[in-house]
Amino acid sequence: QRSLFSAFSRFGLLYSVRAHSNAAVAGPGCYGIIKFYSAGDASRAQRACNGQRLFQKSPLKVCVCTKQRGFQRQVPALSSNKCQELANHYLGFNGWSSRLITLQNVSGFDGENEEVGKTSQKRSLKFLCALEVTLPNHGVRTRGVALGEADAGNGEGRL
């Protein structure tokens, strides 16, 4: 996996790198699945590496996959740090800025504890966040809203 990462990361930021052994019926060898954040980076990597001997004896066969069959699980959201890393990579460190418009605790506004005196065994904290992102070199400004939720437990023994 390290060799695959080194060979393909020069084309752009990688989302994931996985290496697998071939099935017994296919003979000895292995294959890898490399996911880029950018389709353009993936295409450049495919053109540059297909048929090349990067770190192995036999030439690589590099294909760009446009369909994702068999992936039934939900893709997790990107962390704030990863989003900032991507923005800095593709837009430059001075190519964007963000501004927090509001961050509000909206726990309990959805009627989860409507009955007086009734407390839920499983409490959750909900926060609403509004953010503005500006791309000054492109004259673009956009706002986004998100709702985050976390299990707060039953409150016993927690600060």
The topology string of helices and strands comes to HEEHHEEE
Count of DSSP helices? 3
Query: Can you tell me the residue ranges where pLDDT is under 50 for at least 5 consecutive residues?
Result: none
Q: What portion of residues belong to β-strands?
A: 25-35%
- CATH topology-level fold name of the domain at 80-108 and 124-151: N-terminal domain of TfIIb
- What characterizes the major β-sheet? 3 strands, antiparallel
Q: How many individual β-strands?
A: 5
Provide the CATH top-level class of the domain at 80-108 and 124-151: Mainly Beta
Structural class: alpha+beta
- Taking strands numbered 1, 2, ... along the chain, how are they ordered across the largest sheet? 3-4-5
State the shape.
flat
CATH architecture of the domain at 80-108 and 124-151: Single Sheet
Assembly type of the shown chains?
single chain
Q: What Rg do the Cα atoms give?
A: 23 Å
Distance between the termini: 42 Å
Percentage of residues assigned to helices: 10-25%
Average pLDDT score:
78
Would you kindly provide a written description of the structure presented here, covering whatever features stand out?
The chain has 159 residues and is an alpha+beta fold. The chain is built from 3 helices and 5 strands, in the order αββααβββ. Strands 3-4-5 form a 3-stranded antiparallel sheet, with no helix packed on it. A two-stranded antiparallel sheet has the order 1-2. The longest helix has 12 residues. The model has no long low-confidence stretch (mean pLDDT 78).
